[in-house]
Write a structure and sequence with these properties.
The complex is a heterodimer of chains A (about 550) and B (about 100).
Chain A (H helix, E strand, L loop, with lengths): L9 H21 L6 H6 L6 H10 L4 H14 L5 H4 L3 H17 L5 H8 L2 H34 L3 H50 L2 H6 L24 H19 L1 H8 L4 H17 L5 H10 L15 H9 L4 H37 L5 H26 L5 H25 L5 H23 L8 H26 L32 H18 L2
Chain B lengths: L4 H21 L18 H51 L1
Classes of the chains: A mainly alpha (about 550), B mainly alpha (about 100).
Chain lengths: ~550, ~100
């Protein structure tokens, strides 16, 4: 078996160069449409649902998804599919059916703004600041992943590739704003499909059938989703509470239903129906995405048994890049590298475009410079884009200290998204939740996650794996936020019912006669049932 | 505003044609980790053609939508012009 790495040829560089030209071209072509801060930061609410749907999916399709999921699959086997079928689809359906109407109809520009309307200014400020910190911390992961892939596959200097990628993202986000970011996310979606699908096809050709692949796993648990979870001896080291409560409920709903990075794509849709269909349209390809991410990871661990033996060229994170270099001919190799590059750049651009909106509207306009002209906020949005990218370069060097990018990401989610989901759940479905209840609940949930992390670092709390620790931490943060919010809500005065109109389940906006009745077969609920049935079937199939 | 299908379509057409030509001119790579499976031709060829076809379909869809919008605009301006003509005739009949 030959495992010689392909060396990049001019054709591969040509593919990368042409991709760069198109990305920059899209940004410059959209520049003339960026007349107001609304155009720049919110894409002017005029994007069709299939575009926002794919952007919704692709904004999450950065380094973590492509490299991290394949790495997880090589390390933990088919159980990685839990991140899709347990940790994404149910939450995406819930967002479309129950939460999106509140987000879209309340005409908010960002998730923190919903918290201001539903609760008060301090809750919004707390969420805006923590979200701004979180996005720049996440954004750096993409730069880091890209630099390491380019260093190992093309021999490029890490600092130079970080600088080039940061400059390209800066160029297209500062010219075309959110629209440019969304367009490039859709472009990236198709590049990833075409760039990575041959790995799975060649892998299947190589082994003939799924059964042949399963027969080659050293650990038979690698072929099952649930079989070893109850016994606690599964490769991932997680138990039922961590998996269902942590990943399936808190982390997944916390990310998909409250993270402004993904919600922002749906809010850019042209109307409410398109906004509600956004997560549904994204969920259908999401169900199948393990074919592009998990499956190559499984192939990698069979073909490259040495994978995971060091933290550099043979780290689990290198599963996909390594397969590209041993399976692809030149030309296709360039396409595969471009797909990875596109995913890193748009993962970063997604974070930066969410950061600039929250900074401009929820922090700068609300607390630093009120009542300025729209041109001023447009200028600030652009400045925030540039600053966000510079900070991302800094955080890129920070995440070099973590051994797994997936653990780093889930750790950040436990601090910010896990308690936030409890706040949203109570805010949207429990009118008694008071403003101060929400504020102190959110604050204590985040503090609880930090304390839990410190106790884990000091080995006072021990888990089988970092991932299991993250899942349990998220349940703790969520529960603390829930209990504190409810307790303080009963001790403080709730908002008047009239102020909650359109913000809480069961207290609707007054009918303005514009509501359009749609057939039940075209409703998000109908597609949601199909998605959940498909997901249940896949869980049964790979039980 | 720019139809997103245009840049996607053109990018895939350019890359697809490039890959197909390059693959046709170069023999299949030998160092594939495929064991006994031998591919009869360079993978770049079928994949490049597939990409080019996908790109072509994206551009075509964008063009069809553009034509439809133009037709609708034309029909709307015609009906407006027709309505203006009728009101002019009515006004001159009254006069």
């Amino acid at each position: 078996m030959k495992t010689a790495l392909v060396t990049a040829q001019p054709i591969d560089y040509a593919v990368i160069l042409i991709y760069f030209i198109f990305v920059l071209g899209v940004g410059f072509k959209l520049k003339k449409n960026m007349k107001s801060s609304d155009d720049f930061l919110l894409a002017g609410h005029r994007i069709p649902s299939w575009v926002t749907g794919l952007a919704f999916l692709s904004a999450n399709l950065g380094a973590i998804e492509v490299m991290g999921m394949a790495a997880n699959a090589a390390q933990y086997g088919v159980m990685t599919c839990h991140f899709y079928w347990l940790g994404a689809i149910p939450a995406m359906v819930f967002l479309a059916v129950f939460m999106m109407p509140f987000y879209y109809k309340s005409k908010i520009r960002s998730v923190p703004e919903y918290l201001r309307k539903r609760f008060n200014e301090p809750t919004r400020a707390l969420n805006a600041i923590s979200f701004a910190v979180m996005t720049v911390l996440m954004s750096g992961i993409n730069l880091y992943a890209m630099a390491i892939v380019f260093k190992l596959l093309l021999g490029w200097d890490m600092n130079a590739s970080i600088a080039v990628a940061a400059l390209v993202v800066l160029a297209y986000t500062i010219t075309g704003g959110l629209t440019s970011s969304i367009y490039n996310e859709v472009l990236q979606f198709f590049l990833i499909v075409f760039g990575l699908l041959p790995v799975s096809i060649l892998g299947l050709l190589r082994f003939g059938s799924w059964q042949n692949i399963c027969d080659r796993f050293e650990n038979p648990g690698f072929a099952h989703l649930w079989k070893q979870v109850a016994s606690g001896t599964n490769p991932m080291g997680v138990d039922m509470i961590g998996l269902i409560g942590g990943l399936g409920f808190v982390l997944s709903f916390g990310y998909w239903c409250t993270d402004f990075l993904v919600i922002q794509r749906a809010l850019a849709a042209e109307d409410l129906k398109a906004a509600r269909m956004t997560p549904i349209i994204a969920a259908f390809p999401k169900i199948l995405f393990p074919i592009l991410t998990v499956f190559p990871g499984l192939i990698a661990i069979i073909l490259i048994p040495k994978l995971g033996s060091n933290n550099d060229s043979l780290s689990y994170n290198m599963a996909i890049p390594y397969l590209l270099s041993v399976m692809y001919p030149n030309g296709l190799f360039g396409l595969g590298i471009t797909a990875l590059l596109a995913s890193f750049m748009s993962g970063m651009a997604g974070n930066v475009t969410a950061f600039n909106t929250v900074w401009t509207y929820d922090i700068y306009q609300s607390y630093i410079a009120k009542n300025k002209s729209d041109a001023h906020y447009l200028w600030m949005g652009k400045l925030a884009t540039a600053v966000g990218i510079i900070i991302s370069v800094g955080t890129c060097y920070l995440c070099m200290n973590f051994k797994s990018i997936m653990d780093y990401m889930q750790l950040i989610f436990t601090f910010f998204n896990a308690p936030l989901f409890a706040t949203f759940l109570l805010g949207m479905f429990f009118p008694r939740t008071s403003a101060w209840g929400a504020f102190y609940g959110l604050l204590s949930g985040t503090v609880a996650a930090f304390l839990h992390y410190i106790l884990t670092l000091q080995h006072k709390l021990n888990y089988q794996s970092d991932m299991a620790g993250n899942f349990h931490r998220s349940v703790v943060a969520w529960t603390v936020c829930l209990v504190v919010t409810i307790t303080i809500s009963y001790l403080t005065k709730p908002k008047a019912r009239e102020e909650l109109r359109g913000l809480v389940w069961g207290i609707d906006l007054k009918d303005d006669g514009t509501a359009v009745k749609t057939s039940i077969f075209a409703s998000p609920g109908f597609f949601g049932v199909i998605l959940l049935a498909l997901t249940a079937y896949l869980n049964y199939l790979f039980f | 505003m720019l139809d997103v299908r245009l840049p996607i379509g053109w990018l895939f057409m350019v890359l697809g044609v490039m890959l197909a030509i390059y693959g046709y001119a170069n023999p299949p790579a030998e160092n594939m980790l495929l064991g006994q499976v031998l591919l009869p031709l360079n993978l770049d060829v079928p994949w490049g053609i597939l990409m080019a076809l996908f790109g072509l379909s994206m551009v075509s869809l964008a063009q069809i939508d553009k034509l439809k919008t133009l037709e609708l605009e034309l029909a709307a301006s015609k009906s407006e012009a027709g309505a203006a003509k009728v009101s002019d005739t009515e006004a001159s009949a009254k006069g």
